[in-house]
Amino acid sequence: MFFITGMSTFTWILLAYVGLHIGQDYIPFFKGIDLNTPVLIHHLSGGREFIIRVRELFLIVGSLALFIEVAKAATSQAFGATETLLSFVVAVVFVVMFFMVPWAQNATFLILSLMSFIDATGGFIIELNAAKRDFSIG
C-alpha cells in the first residue's frame, strides 16, 4: 500500500516520463511515441482542431497529481516526514535530470519540476503548521 499512498505521485510521473524516452529502445509499445504524438484530436467548428499531445497530457496529469498531493498532505492524519522527504528527493531528481539529460531539457519537464517542488514545499509547510498546532507552550 506504500507504493500507492506513501509515494509521491510525481514519482510515478517521473518514471512514466523516463519510461517514455528510454522505453523506446526496449519496449515495442513506446516505439514511435514522443512528446509531440497526438493523444486526442477533436474537430471544432470553423475547421479548427483541438489537439492534446503527450506533452500536454503530462502537464494535465501533473496538475492533477499536484492537487492530489496537496489534498493528501492537508487531510491525512498519517502524513509525515517520510512523504515530505521523498517529495524533496523526487523534486531534486527532476531538477538534476533537467540540467543533465538532453531529452529532459524542455518546457514540459521544467514545469513538471516546478510542480514537484511546489508539492514538496507545500507538504513541508503543511507538516510544520500541523506540528505547530500540536506543540503549544503555556
Span between termini: 40 Å
As laid out across the biggest beta sheet, the strand order is: 1-2
Assign a percent range to the helix content.
Answer: 55-70%
Number of helices: 5
Could you give the order of the helices and strands?
HHEEHHH
Sheet-strand content, in percent, reads: 5-15%
Could you characterize the architecture of this molecule?
This protein is mainly α. The chain has one domain. Helix content is 67%, strand content 8%. The protein contains five helices and two strands, in the order H-H-E-E-H-H-H. It has helices at 2-6, 9-26, 54-75, 81-100, 107-134, and strands at 38-43, 49-53. The protein has a two-stranded antiparallel sheet. Helix 3 (54-75) runs parallel beside helix 5 (107-134). The relative contact order is 0.15. The model has no long low-confidence stretch (mean pLDDT 85).
Provide tags for this entry.
5 helices; 67% helix; single chain; globular; mainly alpha; 138 residues; 8% strand; 2 strands
Brief digest:
The protein has 138 residues and is mainly alpha-helical. 67% of the residues lie in helices and 8% in strands.
